[in-house]
Write a structure and sequence with these properties.
about 100 residues, 4 helices
């Protein structure tokens, strides 16, 4: 009598025997523990990293794309504010001299 066994059948039989043995059960426990450890990742840490990267990307985009417009707006606001402060100081000095 001749028995033909394919290599894949041998692999299945050996794999099944290993999984059912004590070694296989320990391997299953180790794999399950590794999967459980991975699932315990603190997602707040990941969220913080993502948020930081998004902020950095937006900051870089804004400073490169809108740099001149922002610069103009800031200069205008500072010029207006400085003029108001100078006029206010001059008016206060004039009022103090008069009274």
């Amino acid at each position: 009598m001749q028995i033909n066994i394919e290599p894949e059948q041998i692999n299945k039989l050996v794999s099944g025997a290993i999984l059912e043995s004590c070694l296989g059960k320990e391997m299953k426990k180790a794999i399950e523990k590794a999967v459980a450890d991975v699932s315990k990742v603190d997602y707040r840490v990941i969220a913080n990293v993502v948020n930081t990267e998004v902020r950095n990307t937006v900051r870089e985009l804004v400073t490169t794309e809108y740099r001149e417009q922002i610069k103009t707006i800031v200069q205008e606001a500072m010029t207006t504010e400085v003029v108001h402060k100078i006029v206010d100081a001059a008016m206060k000095a004039l009022i103090e001299k008069i009274y």
